[in-house]
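cache lookup: miss for this entity combination. No prior model stored, computing from scratch. Input as submitted by user K.M.:
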Amino acid sequence: MDIIISVRGLYKAFADKKVLQGVDIDVPKGKITSIIGQSGTGKSVLFKCIIGIMQADRGSIQVDGEEITNLPEIQMRRIRRRFGYCFQDAALFDSMTVEENIAFPLREVLGMKDKRKMKAIVKEKLQWIELPGIEEKYPSELSGGMRKRVGVARTLAIEPDILLFDEPTTGLDPVLSESINKLIKRVNEEFGITCMVISHDIKGTFSISDQIAFLHDGAIQAVGSPVEVARAQHPILRKFLENSFADLKVDCGPEE
Amino acid sequence: MKYRGILLPKIIDALEQLGQFWLFVVEMFKQMVRRPFRWYLVAEQLEKIGVYSVPIILLSSLTIGMIFSLQLGSFLSMFRAEMLVGAAVAKTLSRELAPVVTALMLIARNGSAMTAEIGTMRATEQIDAMETMSVNPIQYLTVPRVVASILAFPVLTAIANIVGVLGSYFISVLVRKVDKAGFLDQMYAYVDPVDIISGFIKAAVMGLLVSTICCFYGYYAKGGSRGVGDAATKAVVVSSVGILVADYIMADIMLKVLFD
């Protein structure tokens, strides 16, 4: 199994608050790896360290075998070019239309100048996320689920190798959550993009992930396939799973 | 001794912010000379800061010119020197009032908007999104606003000069019946091009100061919508006081260098 991202002994603290305290994780290429854990355990911090917009205090992050911690900004740009980052609230530029949002990385990252070509790519991406014809709309005119889809389209525009999803289903109803989970699965299967997902939607995570890691107390406490993680004995993880899958029983209807 | 616990953290906080501002300014100047140059963003900001601000500058400078002439006219009439009103208004406007009033108006109209816009982008992770795409947010958001302000402030100051003098002419010549030839003659005699140029230099420096301060407060805004509101208030207060202090320093230097 090819490893695309390898994190070893990663530490990060904010003043007295120790967030990451020796995170070790290998992310297999072309697979979906999900990070689960309680709020405030440093999942987003881990993502921001991986993509290099936050500096880790110590430890190692390798992308395809290349050490990226302490890389100069110019070289870090080259690495970052391989990543896409989908934010929790999509982080669309609210002063730009959907078309301008998706064209933004084409113009600013790839240096594309051909407006007709950019329009064609935007149209294609919008069709792919099943939201054709919304080019002229502003983010404020879209629903939460639509914004997240447009966020995915924007990151897909530059065809990254690795996509990081930061809580993609938070704030969405179960039907929309499922559609976003399916979208992540499609991204992975159709483009072969390695996906890393932070999620509190445990059921969705178990249905789409190839690997799940449980982050607690600043370190990965359990990692493996969904079946392996489901069998792990960590008490907090057990509580997590029991609460999530207890809901599933309720969803199935009243017991007779 | 009892004030130590209250004062010390505030002093440390202020020094920290000063250091942060310094680093921000250094990074901004670095990004200003680094590729890519986004002229279309500068043009966009020139439209927002320059073109859309013309009405407010017209109104404020016209009013100031008129009020100033009214007050000065009644005072100078005691010495039968009403003809000097034009010269006095034009000289004061070009050296001091036009750049300062223009800057104050632009702080109210554009400075607070800059802070709020960039602050909201910070609060909603739009700035983080730019960083993940390897787009430098200081280069993309701050540089065009600062360059546009440096260019727009002197032009708006020039407009303020002209309109202020027109306001003065209206009150003095048409309302108070001061001799038209005398009014213009005295104005031409006492106002030098160097007065006007010094005002433009001041306006450019104020443009740099206002836009940098306002972008800085927006860029480091914390704490959601309330934080953005606080940042906008701080930006307006600090830049307003800042331009007055800068104006005094520049006036002192220019009086020694240009007018001696």
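stored under new cache key. Confidence is low (pLDDT under 50) at residues 248-256 of chain A.
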